[in-house]
Amino acid sequence: MYLLVLVHILQSSLLAVHSCPSLCACSYGNSGTAESVQCSDPGISVVPINVPADTVKLRLEKTLISRVPRAAFYNLSELRFLWLVYNSITSIHPSSFVNLKALRELRLDGNFLTSFPWEGLRDMPQLQTLGLHNNRLSSLPAHAALFLPNITYLDLSSNRLTILPAELLDLWFPLPGQHGGPTQRRILGLHDNPWLCDCQISMVMSLSMSLWSPVVLMDQLLMCSRSLGQSGVLLTQAQLSRCMRPSVQPAATRVVSPLGSNVILRCDATGYPTPTLTWIKTSAYAGEKRRTLYIESPRVGVRWSIISLNGLSYKDAGEYRCQARNMGGISEALIRLRVVGVTRLSRPPKKKSQKTPPKPSLKYRRPNQNPATINTPSMKENQIPLNITPPSFNKTQTAPDPGSRVFPADEYKVNPQDTKKKTQTSIKSTPESSDNTTSALLSETQRYKEELTPARSDIDAMSPEHSLKD
User: Fold this and answer.
1) What does UniProt give as the signal peptide span (predicted)?
2) What is the DSSP string of 397-447?
3) What's the CATH number where 189 sits?
4) What does the mean pLDDT of the chain come to?
């Protein structure tokens, strides 16, 4: 049972692949594939849906088809040629050509189209030939140039076109070096349209006549009129000579300026009609208040513009484009601005360090003196300057007191040997100070005291308070 159902499904599929639509004629190749399907019966009013899936060429001619619905040819993924000529088509859905990845030629001549879904060309990446001859197209949108890079044959003749967008001129006549690859040669049909006598159509004729032109016109006799409704006149060479595509020349292509400085960027443009100038930066300006723009046109066909940037910051660096535009096309120049420098950080002034006086050693404290009230020894209190040589005395003379008081030698008799022993004893019993300055002072003081007779320590030893302490 299941085997019979499977066989029935396979037979239905084969019939769908090889069946030919009614009122149509199909031709098959040696391998059994449908090479061509032609439907030209006046009774056909809709696009056939049972066209063999392996069809390579489909021709729908002289029928009553008025519209092309969405995904009308979705099952024809191998279709390469699609002719929908001399029908009554008035509208085409933007998604009518979905899945036609292998299509190379699309012809829609002899219909009643007033507009064409240019964005639908994205579904046909291999398309090279597009025929729209003898329709009712009245305008070409500027965005159409985005979907025509691969089209090498474009027939727009016998329509109602009046103006050719400048974007199409940039596509058909690229500037040297604007496109990386080799320039494609294109065949254009622009005749039998009520063109206005402007620079676009004049530039097409002028450039197509030049040697090695990338564009070849099917008919070079183009008619144009000064205004709509007037009779057309043949374009002459005298009229062509007045139109000139804009050319931009910057004052400098690379500018290096320090941080915080002011800089002026300038560009000059020529062309006819006199081009308009616009400055473009990839990102928004860091500060609109710091930008000043000047535009001047000293005479017809010439215009210059400068942009002033004050107080440069790192955000102002980048690429600036000066773009010129007129009826003959668009041209631009690039200026690169580089900001160099390092921001200086302001540092507060260093404070002078206040050195604290060293703590006096307890060795100079008198017996009845409070340690909290000890001050640094002065010259008036038991301090001997290191740079003064002490006077020499005889053994029978008494040494003057380093302080403010002098004791006569006859009043007190001191044995020099006892003085030496007691001085050594006091030095050994006193712990060494951590202060290097105090240690040096004590060492020098000790050396001088040993040479003086009698010493201060012996005199203090004779006082009643010191006797009691010992």
Assistant:
1) 1-19
2) SPPPPSSS----TTT----HHHHHHHHHHHHHHSPPPS-HHHHHHHHHHHH
3) 3.80.10.10
4) 75
